[in-house]
Amino acid sequence: MSSAPPSAGRQLQDEQRPAVVCLARHAETEWSASGRHTGRTDVPLTADGERHAARLGALLRALRGHDAPPPPSVVLSSPRRRAVRTAELAGLASPVVLDELAEWDYGDCEGLTTPQIRESVPDWTVWTHPCPGGETAQEVAARADRVLTRIATLLQSGDVVVVGHGHFSRVLTARWIGLPATSGVHFALDAGCLTVLGDERGVPRLDHVNLAPLP
Questions:
Q1: What secondary structure, in 3-state letters, does the chain show?
Q2: Quick one: average pLDDT of 6-23?
Q3: Would you kindly state where each structural domain of the chain is located, as residue ranges?
Q4: Looking at CB atoms within 10 Å, which of 4, 63, 69, 171 has the fewest?
Q5: pLDDT-based confidence at residue 191 (cuts at 50, 70, 90)
Q6: Is the pLDDT of residue 3 over 90?
Q7: What pLDDT score was predicted for residue 17?
Q8: pLDDT tens, residue by residue, 87-114
């Protein structure tokens, strides 16, 4: 799928800039720290992850351009507790839980690291190979496009903050600028970091990628 995502009728939320989408990946879990593919499994944040998530709020305020910016029009969160907890610790009150923000379904690859999978499937990556019993890249792209259609409406009222996962958020980033889901490989998004999807006179752009809070 390489066609552009649904166009977003964004309007200025103030006199300085158009509304933006802030993508926050949940903070560290034991599985993310060890490189295990974590889709459906609902693992909690580590102690370090909780501390890191608490610093996300300050980074978000700085990125949105004001000492005391207006609240985002909405905060959307994956249903997984690692995402909901990250939103809570970052001071993002009452997120709207959206099932479509769940991580890529890895199927039989769930809980395995890439080196473990490559023991039986050489050169495997989620971007280039199937996940038996899970989602295809095309299915993830279709889900991402549905999320972007919803976000397009929400942006008319101000910034949108999305708290989710690594691979799915990278697909969202690719689809925002009209690239296929597999182009998500080109965008890093580490645990507890932020990517900002912006707009220049109606043309989607990437404002920031994989920004980490200050220690």
A1: CCCCCCCCCCCECCCCCECCEEEEECCCEHHHHHCCCCCCCCCCECHHHHHHHHCHHHHHHHHCCCCCCCCCCEEEECCCHHHHHHHHHCCCCCCEECHHHCCCCCHHHCCCCHHHHHCCCCCCCCCCCCCCCCCCHHHHHHHHHHHHHHHHHHHHHCCEEEEECHHHHHHHHHHHCCCCHHHHHHCCCCCCCEEEEEEECCEEEEEEEEECCCC
A2: 61
A3: 21-211
A4: 4
A5: very high
A6: no
A7: 74
A8: 999 999 899 999 999 999 999 999 999 9
In this structure, the dihedral spanned by the alpha carbons of residues 129, 132, 137 and 143, taken in order and rounded to 10 degrees, is: -170
> Does the annotation count 103 as an active-site position?
yes
Question: In the predicted model, what is the mean pLDDT of the chain?
Answer: 91
Cα–Cα distance for residue pair 21/1, rounded to 1 Å: 22
Smallest Cα–Cα separation from 43: which of 98, 97, 86?
A: 86
Question: Which amino acid is located at 201 in the chain?
Answer: R
Taking the whole predicted model, whether its pTM rises above 0.85 is answered as yes
CATH for the stretch 21-211? 3.40.50.1240
Burial (0-12, 13-18, 19+ Cβ within 10 Å), 51: middle
The one-letter amino acid at 98: L
Q: How far apart are CA 156 and CA 136, in angstroms?
A: 31
Q: Which one is catalytic: 28, 103, 110, 135? A: 103
